[in-house]
Amino acid sequence: MASHSDTLVVFFGATAGANGDKLGSDEREIILLVWQIVDLRDKKVGELHRCVVKPDTLDLTEQCKEETGLTPDDLLEAEPLDKALQQFQQSVSSEVKCLGRSSCTLCVNSPLVIRQALHPEASKKNLVLPENFFSFVDARKEFQKCCPNADPVQKLTLASMLEYCWDLQKPTTHTLIQFLLSFIFFSLDHKFSCVETVKYKFDSGTCSKAEPVDSETVIRARGLPWQSSDQDIARFFKGLNIAKGGVALCLNAQGRRNGEALVRFINSEHRDLALERHKHHMGSRYIEVYKATGEEFLKIAGGTSNEVAQFLSKENQVIIRMRGLPFTATPQEVLSFLGPESPVTDGAEGLLFVKYPDGRPTGDAFVLFSCEEYAQNALKKHKQILGKRYIELFRSTAAEVQQVLNRYMSTPLIATLPPSPIVSTRDCVRLRGLPYTAGIEDILEFMGEHTVDIKPHGVHMVLNQQGRPSGDAFIQMKSPDKAFMVSQKCHKKTMKDRYVEVFQCSTEEMSIVLMGGTLNRSGLSPPPCKLPCLSPPTAYAAFPTPPAMLSEAALYQPPLLAAPRPPPTTHAHSPALAYYPPQPHLYMNMNMNYTAYYPRFSHPAAAGTSMLPQPGALVRMQGLPYNAGVKDILSFFQGYQYAPEEYSSMVQMSEQARSLIQPKEWLCL
């Protein structure tokens, strides 16, 4: 941008902390503003104005006291920043008008006072800065342009520039005004035309993977609030110019934001200033700022889809992400859900449904709105019901659109699963966020009146790889309608001072999670596939050895679909209850997060019996002595019944097998 004004406003500022080359790096508030008008045409200067500013905190560093001559007492009667800015605006406007000029240009000795101090503080305090502070000239850069043989800009000081101008006569004062007057005399035909600007707002846009990105312009911000948008991040870096579409929010493997973002600036100078904001605050959280590379930025923000490029080609749009849509949702149903108070840009063309490579919907969509008001109205629909599912709505960015599309279109999430012979229905619910001390009784109490709708043996606790509760559980209901009702009535109810989330899901989804996969609102991932073990793990040596080689399908066989075996011979008074046999091959995938498939429980009202572990259930023992043998274990369980065929297999264990017993063992009771 090239412009020229005959009137300069020489501007200076100081903070309550570090000044000079570190101005603004410690996030301290402005306490002093100084300005003076310079008439370049008539080579005259106006009145010097000095305005003390009252900060929120009156603590001053020793460096500040020494350089400004101010004390905390001087700040008590001062005006706050908004009043000081009003005084500046009125003073400058009046003097410029008296000179018969229509415009003026701000002149500073360093951009730090504008970019690193004034704009960030005004943004935090929600102050609107006068237009003068969105463009300025840097006296050092102007001097470097006129005197290319002088020192580099970074090493230039007022003293060195004055000495260069007054080679014969040394100046008596080293002030910016003195320099400007000397510079004007030294270079009569110089035009102050290298005007730097501060962007009013962040411009969203797209980035192609083929676009070159300089690594010297990219940073990584870490520790962001999960609900942060690209505009929030741009506000954190207010005063620095971010490239168009230069904010890329990072997502985790589940498609959720992980608190990090990659930011691309217009040049390395602005990137270096951004690094000085390391551990500055966004609200109550401090943000870490590190260097990043262009390759990292392109990996997150770059895209190649023509569909996405066309969707994002409309500029100045607010993007909202919808998550959890019914797979059968149509554009018209989504538009009706949003309502007339939230008109979508260009109707159905402003919707982008996210799909798998085979065309199946993922339940995600992105929506364009032409203004902030429409977007805010749409966000009020957060967690309202569409069909039989509640919909989540979040602010989004162009880079997030690229990431989500890249993730779903690059790798099918469930392509490695064998086809299920049973059609899955959504007759299950998932409980997430359970207290780690919660048991079956707590879950049944939590379900309340809905316990009568639980299938027999339908409560499944999910354990982690250490065998401890993971905070999740699955419950099989008698019908999809019952599952839906539970998910609506019990969602976010409290259990032991913790609210529990309840989601409706299918039998297939439950099976995959029990086998070590992941399930969330963004998609379904299968468990990690490992090669079959040639022999069972040591801890399960008491079980019959399966065939040496197992098919991949066998590894993923859902345990809950296994057929129950007939009960052993019991006395006449003993209840005849089906139980599930131990299946060693299920334990071979050591990445499973459903370590104990037993015991299975049914609700007393449904089974007509007391709520007891079923025969054939496994009991895990922790803390066994290293020299404990089978007889010791059986003696410990004296008075309990156990499966006779399992007892006979354990009695045949040799001394060698006994030496393999670990501190954690399984016993089939």
From TrEMBL:
Keywords of this entry: mRNA processing, mRNA splicing, Nucleus, Repeat, RNA-binding
Listed GO CC annotations: nucleus
Record-linked SMART domains: RRM (SM00360)
Compartments where located: Nucleus
Cross-referenced CDD domains: RRM2_ESRP2, RRM3_ESRP1_ESRP2
Sequence similarity: Belongs to the ESRP family.
UniProt protein name: Epithelial splicing regulatory protein 2
Gene from which this protein is expressed: ESRP2
